[in-house]
Write a structure and sequence with these properties.
Length: 238
């Protein structure tokens, strides 16, 4: 399947007029300033920009963590910032998967236990959750490593555990914040190409914040941010 063929016409995320500021008066700083974009199912969208340009703030808003001062976010047609508290919590748990730069694995839990956490949080039975997690151990290419603690895994392997944990609940939106920053160049590329080949599908939209220009070739589109605003939109080079 070629690199472009997964992208659908169906809108996964529609951000309109998003604005978020911190502080008041002299200390007021607008971190995200009237941002508009659309991301489609089947697409990998990169958000790039210098430190402090508002990327993490924007991710937090579209994933239902940080309420904007103005603007709307619709995910799969629903306006998430109109949800009540319970529905928003459910949205964060079921619709969005998050992968962080430093993996955020629990050091005393095994690979399978780390991956099972989202299911256990959803009140699924422990044994069933671990059995399901073992399937994801295989999906991310870590067969045989279910019972190992994170400290025994390489950085690339830990990132695969984090990806498995983020997708075990089948989220439609997968968000990765600097996923390659702690990895060497080759491992970083392997992880992103793995995400593109195995984790992206037509019912999922992937948003990646990155400073790592070496992985730009894997983007379907690239949004450039500066001072809280979108300053450009590129197609990926693939
Ligand atoms: N909770 C907060 N309180 C006050 N200011 C904040 C807060 N969060 C972010 N900011 C400010 O908003 C601006 C945008 O920050 P943000 O973390 O979104 O940028 P970024 O592009 O993700 O940066 P980096 O690449 O360094 O992570 C920065 O000037 C930051 O200091």
């Amino acid at each position: 399947m070629d690199a472009q063929s997964l992208r659908t016409q169906k809108e996964a995320i529609v951000a309109t007029g998003l604005t978020k500021w911190f502080g008041e008066g002299d200390t007021k700083m607008t971190a995200v300033n009237n941002v508009n974009f659309v991301a489609h199912f089947g697409e990998i969208l990169f958000i790039v920009g210098p430190s402090g340009s508002g990327k993490t703030t924007l991710l937090s808003i579209i994933s239902g963590i940080l309420r904007p001062n103005a603007g709307t976010v619709t995910v799969d047609g629903a306006n998430i910032w109109e949800f009540d508290k319970d529905r928003l919590a459910d949205f964060r748990l079921t619709k969005v998967g998050f992968v962080f730069q430093d993996y955020h694995l629990f050091p005393r839990l095994t690979t399978a236990e780390n991956i099972a956490i989202p299911l256990i949080l959803r009140q699924r039975n422990w044994n069933e959750s671990i059995a399901e997690a073992r399937k994801y151990v295989d999906i991310v290419g870590l067969t045989g490593r279910s019972e190992i603690l994170p400290v025994k895994l390489s950085g690339g392997e830990q990132q695969r555990v984090a990806i498995a944990r983020a997708i075990i609940g089948a989220p439609e939106i997968l968000i990765l914040d600097e996923p390659t920053a702690s990895l060497d160049g080759d491992t970083g590329k392997m992880i992103i190409s793995f995400i593109k080949e195995k984790i992206l599908n037509q019912n999922r939209c992937i948003v990646i914040v990155t400073h790592d220009a070496r992985i730009n070739e894997y983007a379907d589109r690239i949004i450039h941010m500066e001072d809280g605003r979108i300053t450009g939109l590129d197609k990926g080079t693939e």
